[in-house]
Every structure is written in C-alpha cells, then in structure tokens.
Amino acid sequence: MPHIVTIRRACSLTLGLLLSIGAGSVPVRADTELQNVLAARMSAMKALHVREPRTLEVTGSIAGAGLQGAFHSWSGPQGQRYDQWIGTRFESSIRVGGRQFAIDENGNVRELQGLMQQRQRTEDFINEDGFVTHPEDDRYLGHVTLPDGRSAYALQVTPPGGLAETIALDTHSLLIDRISYDDGDGVSTSDYYDYKVFSGALLAQREIDSNGDHDYDLERISERIGVNRPMERGVFAIPVNAEVQTAQPVTVPLEEHDRHYYTHVRIRGHAYTFLVDTGAQAVVIDSHLASVLGLQPQGHLEVVGASRVGGMGVAPLTDSIFIGAAKLPVHVVTILDLHNVTGSFQADGVLGYPFFASAEVRLDAAKHAMTFGKPGSLRPSGEGFPIDVDRQQIELHGKVDGIPGRFVLDTGNSGELLLFSPFMKLHPELLPVGQRQFANSYGVGGSAQALFAMVDELDFGSYRFFNRYANLMLSQQGAFADRFDAGNIGMGVMQNLVVTFDVANAKMYAAQSTAYDDGRFRTRTEPVTPP
C-alpha cells in the first residue's frame, strides 16, 4: 500500500530580500522585445536611485493558515538570515560564506545542497538583477495580465545551476509584480506590492505567497526597516543540530502490519504504536491520541498525500517521546486523522523527518529490528550514497529501465515502486503495452488511480533490482504528481537491504540483508491483486 505524506510548510525559506541593483549595458544579442523590456527596467532602477545597502534589517507581521506571526530578516557583509514565527511553527534560514542552512521548530539543522539550493541560486540571480545583465539566461514570454488585474511583462529566467522561475515585471513601474516557480505538484507564486526606497534599498512592503490553494496563502507586511545599521553580534551563528538523548545506540523491535513497519514509543509512560516513515516531513500524532493527550491543534495546514487535503494543524508538545531509553527532541507535532491511512491497522502516530534528522537510524526489515543513536554513532555498513534532504524527505538518484531520475526513499510505502505522472508523461515508453490493469494507491487523502506494470530494472548505486512491481500514477495533483521526483521506492525494495539513514550528514548506507533477492529469477506473471 504505497504511502507518502508531505506537509505544506509556511514558507519556502529562500533568502531573497528583493534588492534590485542597477547594472551596466544590456548585451545586443538579446531579442528586440526582451532588450526593450530590460532597458526599461534598468532606466527605472536608475530613476529610483537604487543601490545595495551595507546592511538591511526588516521586521514585520505574518498572517495565514488561521495563524498570526512575525518575521525578522538581516542582510550584511557577514551573511543573511531570515526568521519566521507563525503560531507554534518556527523556521529560519541562515547563509554564511556561500553555505545555506535551514532550521525548524524542533531544532533540526540541515545544509541545503540540493533542490532548495538550486532555487536559491535563481532567487539570487533575480535579486541582483542578473536577468538584466545576463539576458542569455532569459526567455521572453510576452505580455500577461495577473489575476488581480496588473499588467506585466513575463520572463522565464534559468541561471546556470538554478531552477527555472518566471518573473512578471510591471508594465508601468518595471518593478517585480510576481515570481512563480514549479513547487511539488503545482506552481507557487510570490506577489509583491507597495514598493518603497529606504536609503537606496528597494523593498516591497507587502508580499503574498500562495501554492494555488488560497486558504493557505501567507501574507507578510514589513513594518520596521533599518538600513546601514550595526548588526547584533552572533546573528549569523549556525545552531547545533538537535540530537536524540541517548549515551549509546538503542535497538528496538519493529512490528509488521499490512507490510508497514512500526515501533513502540512512550508518552507519559504509556506505549503507543508509530509508523516508521521516511516519507513524512513531520512527527504526526493521530487526532484521537491528540485528544487523549490534550493537544490543541493551532491553525490549519495542507497535507499532500494521494491528494491535497486539509489537516487539523500543529501543536506544541510539552511531553517527551521516548523510544526505548532514548528521548526524542520533538517539540512540535502535526495532528492528523490517521484512520485507514496504512490499511486495517490503526497507527497512533508517525515518526517522520524530525526523528531521522536527530538520529542515525538503521532499519533491518528482514530481522524486524531498528537501531538508532546520535548522528555518526553507527559504524558505516555497506555502500554509501549521497542523499538530498532539502525538502525534509530522503531523495536520491537512480534509474528505472535505464532512465535516470530522482526517487523518494519512503519506508511508509509498503509497495515496491511508484512512478509519478509528470515522469510518465516525459517517458511514455514505460507505459504497459496491451491490456492495462488498473490499481489504486492509498494514503492521506484517500486513493489515487494507477496502472500496474512490471518494470524490468531499478538501479541505485551498484544495486540492480529486476522485475519490479510498479504503480504508474495517473494523478495530476498530490504527492504522486511531484514535478521533481521520478517516483517513490518503498519497503518492497528496501526490505532486501539493511539501510542506514544518516540524515544529519546527508548520507545513507545500504548492505544486503538476510532476505536479499534482486528479483532476476522472479516470475513475470502479474499478481491477481497488484501490490
């Protein structure tokens, strides 16, 4: 039963402050329309006397998703930082010396080295007016009218090493009205209003971020702006990553139900059963257990599973979660109704990203055992792989039938392989020929229709798995329609391996388990009920 849960976060954690800096001449190789727009942009910046400040500090308010909050940003020669509080949620992004780190409310610190780092390169390119000085990285899309009636020129920009984003330049002011970019299963936008120049620094005092579901829009209003003032000492210091509290590694049993793997946790001395799920971005507590514990969810959030659905919210956790003798550094949990999410077995909760970020975790499904300790405490075992944890999931590069792609490693997926609909559109040769057998994938948000197929080969690193059962997803929305990943590798594959996740160091290791079978002699007969 495939499963993946993505929690929509409150912000994208980019560090762009929308500083627009006038630049030199526009190269003549740009096409005429683009050249005219960029020349007008440069003239507008000169007329506003825009220049880069030595330091810039901004504070303001945030509202959205039923919550109120605040933000604080700093920018100077030593680095950049953005902090955001909204209800009990907290997010911070710090950049020093070309390295960027993201910190969440549970104290998990991750260095951005994958997709989010690529997005930041594009944000920097836009903020520095790189699209003016390097029109060879632009594509002019023409005149557009935004939903609120603003008239704009649209340009797609793709700097070297960055992800494509579209900017809308106001036809009157030539200031940026909107930035839009692919994000998961859709397009996210940032709209900018009420520009003003503060001692040379150009700032949009109002910003609205949206993923298309306007119930979850987030509005920021800048209220206090400080230009060229001294920065407080230590503002760009990188905090230490939160770690599980245990003197030595702990081994606990795993229970298997409906091909999902669970472990027992203790809260207030009572035992509860939690799904071990690298595909979830949060530690989740079922709504019934939350009621028993007296947890009051704040605001509302969007959960992306088989489809987009509204969740109950997040709640501060004053009690401790223990696994064996180890205490988890979890301070904020997500509240969801987990009824029927993993089949007939009712889970009390989910151990997602915050658990894996604070511990090094080894799963041996064949022996039904999980060993974990502080990051770096387990001796490496097997082949090492770099992983991308920028999106608070575990993603790595692999191949399916020789076609490369990025895959989510999802221990909450009981199946073998999901291939997402955008990837299938790019590679229709992977669709089964002849009679098509339909299948359903289940998770938060219900079921999603898919086609069942046998995939000849799945590769990652030196591992080659043959004759894999795959669901070819037909969803146009939800986690199975992600635009960046080719698919999802589940426990049906990982049960052949002893897998060690060292998320804090963006590494994983895989060794053959006692149940290892690469499937090369597996029957090609389709099962009556696809897994």
Summarize the structure.
The protein has 531 residues and is mainly beta. It is built from seven helices and 38 strands.
Description:
The N and C termini lie close together (7 Å). Helices cover 11% and strands 45% of the residues. It has seven helices and 38 strands. The strands form five sheets. It has a 13-stranded antiparallel β-sheet, covered by helices on one side. Strands 16, 17, 18, 19, 22, 23, 24, 25 and 26 form a nine-stranded mixed β-sheet that branches. The radius of gyration is 24 Å and the shape is globular. A hairpin with a 2-residue loop joins strand 4 and strand 5. By secondary structure, the chain is mostly beta strands.
Write the layout of secondary structure elements.
Blueprint (H helix, E strand, L loop, with lengths): L5 E2 L24 H16 L8 E9 L2 E10 L2 E8 L2 E8 L2 E6 L4 E3 L3 H13 L2 H4 L4 E8 L5 E7 L7 E6 L5 E8 L2 E13 L2 E10 L7 E10 L22 E4 L1 E3 L2 E8 L2 E7 L7 E3 H7 L7 E4 L3 E4 L1 E4 L4 E3 L2 E3 L3 E5 L12 E3 L1 H6 L1 E5 L4 E5 L9 E4 L8 E6 L2 E7 L7 E3 L1 H6 L10 E7 L2 E15 L2 E11 L13 E3 L1 H4 L2 E6 L4 E6 L19
Parallel strand pairs: 18-26, 19-25, 31-36, 32-35
Antiparallel strand pairs: 1-20, 2-3, 2-14, 3-4, 4-5, 5-6, 6-7, 8-9, 9-10, 10-11, 11-12, 12-13, 13-14, 15-28, 16-17, 17-18, 17-23, 19-26, 20-21, 22-25, 23-24, 27-28, 27-37, 29-38, 30-31, 30-34, 32-36, 33-34, 34-35, 37-38
